[in-house]
């Protein structure tokens, strides 16, 4: 964190990154003194409502974070920024999204939790866009021009007012992680007719926080004289959608050896929750989340090294798990190493249904395409693990081919889940 005082005093000369949280209502002109070096600007958690025309003079700027401010429109000056690849406006009150207001160089766009009712037809110009977060807006349709965004890999459309999804979205050649729960055509209405136990929040004794994700906080808790993991959801909407949809998808997924076991749920009007089996400390996260540089692809701790046999074991279990989910008309939407837990024997536990979607309302063709999208996620997972594999062998070469076939941008030539099982 930096200060405006230090910036004005010239102490930040030559800085490539700047973060200011000072209840700003106007853009500080002093930032322009860094025009020749500044690459990352974070002005989130202020009270800004606009950007000056001079903003485009920040010619080296690659990433700008303007989340949790007072913006009601996307400033058109952004389109004039020559190096900008990442833009974040999460948690503003944006209603106006004018034509041609973003640079065509944009690769990562975060507009979660705003009031956007319509995307501009010029959205199709964003042909380099890889990551798009639009959950929690008021979209009723998507512009047909968006089918030209053929670099899209991750798309979040949950908690909008979409009445349907067109086929072209499922046909984007690189789409790998897709979530669209909580729209008008597929929103979970309740948790009725669930065979699992409904528990009361008062029955739990919270011991300590043991984890936190985008949608909720996980506690170690006492329940019926047992230690359990209790996930309590944060609020009415998360970065991936509505908590009710996440709980509903998690319950619909059913039981599987590689899924974290759900014991009960909490359906309090003021607090939704999931009661899960406490995972042994023998299990650790397989990977780390993507970085700013990798955008959509996972990262790994230094000195991580997987063998071909280990990668095969993990991939086999994940394929079986996804086949089970899709048999129950659920897509996971977030198949990543950082969402997978493994023990020393590389047994897999998989959970976190924040980006899951109920596929029941889709056509048969769309459900088939959704499977192929998640096959691509498996391909990326294998590819990521191979990037931290030092082994040189025929088996590694075989895995490379499987990853390539699973990630094929010609979807008609992509492996199915069944074919993947046979290949491995």
Automatic annotation (TrEMBL):
<keyword id="KW-0433">Leucine-rich repeat</keyword>
<protein>
    <submittedName>
        <fullName>Leucine-rich repeat-containing protein kinase family protein</fullName>
        <ecNumber>2.7.-.-</ecNumber>
    </submittedName>
</protein>
<dbReference type="InterPro" id="IPR001611">
    <property type="entry name" value="Leu-rich_rpt"/>
</dbReference>
<keyword id="KW-0418">Kinase</keyword>
<feature type="binding site">
    <location>
        <position position="231"/>
    </location>
    <ligand>
        <name>ATP</name>
    </ligand>
</feature>
<dbReference type="InterPro" id="IPR000719">
    <property type="entry name" value="Prot_kinase_dom"/>
</dbReference>
<dbReference type="Pfam" id="PF00069">
    <property type="entry name" value="Pkinase"/>
</dbReference>
<dbReference type="InterPro" id="IPR050216">
    <property type="entry name" value="LRR_domain-containing"/>
</dbReference>
<dbReference type="GO" id="GO:0016301">
    <property type="term" value="F:kinase activity"/>
</dbReference>
<dbReference type="InterPro" id="IPR032675">
    <property type="entry name" value="LRR_dom_sf"/>
</dbReference>
<keyword id="KW-0677">Repeat</keyword>
<dbReference type="InterPro" id="IPR003591">
    <property type="entry name" value="Leu-rich_rpt_typical-subtyp"/>
</dbReference>
<dbReference type="Pfam" id="PF13855">
    <property type="entry name" value="LRR_8"/>
</dbReference>
<keyword id="KW-0067">ATP-binding</keyword>
<dbReference type="InterPro" id="IPR017441">
    <property type="entry name" value="Protein_kinase_ATP_BS"/>
</dbReference>
<feature type="domain" description="Protein kinase">
    <location>
        <begin position="204"/>
        <end position="424"/>
    </location>
</feature>
<keyword id="KW-0547">Nucleotide-binding</keyword>
<dbReference type="InterPro" id="IPR011009">
    <property type="entry name" value="Kinase-like_dom_sf"/>
</dbReference>
<keyword id="KW-0808">Transferase</keyword>
């Amino acid at each position: 964190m930096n200060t405006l005082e230090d910036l004005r005093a010239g102490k930040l000369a030559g800085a490539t990154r700047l973060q200011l949280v000072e209840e700003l209502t106007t853009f500080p002109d002093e930032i322009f003194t860094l025009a020749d070096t500044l690459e990352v600007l974070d002005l989130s958690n202020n009270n800004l409502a606009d950007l000056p025309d001079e903003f485009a003079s920040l010619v080296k700027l690659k990433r700008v974070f303007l989340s949790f401010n007072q913006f009601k429109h996307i400033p058109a000056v952004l389109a004039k920024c020559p190096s900008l690849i990442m833009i974040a406006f999460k948690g503003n009150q944006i209603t106006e999204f004018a034509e041609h207001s973003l640079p065509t160089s944009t690769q990562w766009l975060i507009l979660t939790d705003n009031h956007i009712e319509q995307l501009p037809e010029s959205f199709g110009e964003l042909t380099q866009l890889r990551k798009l977060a639009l959950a929690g807006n008021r979209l009723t349709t998507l512009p047909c021009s968006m089918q030209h965004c053929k670099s899209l890999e991750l798309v979040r459309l949950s908690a909008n007012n979409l009445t349907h999804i067109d086929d072209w979205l499922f046909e984007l050649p690189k789409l790998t992680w897709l979530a669209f729960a909580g729209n008008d055509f597929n929103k979970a209405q309740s948790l009725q007719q669930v065979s699992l136990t409904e528990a009361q929040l008062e029955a739990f004794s919270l011991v300590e926080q043991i984890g936190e994700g985008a949608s909720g906080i996980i506690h170690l808790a006492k329940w019926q004289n047992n230690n359990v993991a209790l996930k309590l959801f944060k609020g009415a909407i998360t970065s991936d959608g509505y908590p009710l949809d996440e709980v509903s998808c998690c319950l619909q997924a059913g039981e599987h050896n590689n899924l974290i076991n759900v014991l009960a749920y909490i359906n309090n009007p003021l607090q939704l929750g999931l009661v899960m089996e406490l995972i042994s400390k023998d299990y650790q996260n397989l990977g780390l989340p993507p970085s700013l540089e990798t955008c959509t692809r996972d990262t790994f701790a230094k000195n991580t090294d997987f063998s071909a046999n280990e990668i095969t074991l993990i991939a086999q279990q994940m394929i079986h798990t996804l086949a089970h989910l899709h048999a129950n008309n659920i897509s996971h939407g977030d198949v990543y190493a950082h969402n997978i837990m493994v023990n020393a024997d590389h047994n897999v536990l998989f959970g976190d249904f924040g980006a899951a979607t109920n596929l029941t309302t889709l056509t048969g063709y769309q459900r088939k395409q959704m499977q192929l999208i998640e096959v691509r996620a498996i391909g990326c997972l294998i590819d990521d693990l191979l990037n931290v594999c030092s082994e040189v062998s025929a088996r590694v070469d075989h895995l490379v081919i499987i990853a390539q076939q699973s990630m094929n941008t010609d979807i008609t030539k992509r492996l199915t889940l069944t074919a993947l099982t046979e290949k491995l």
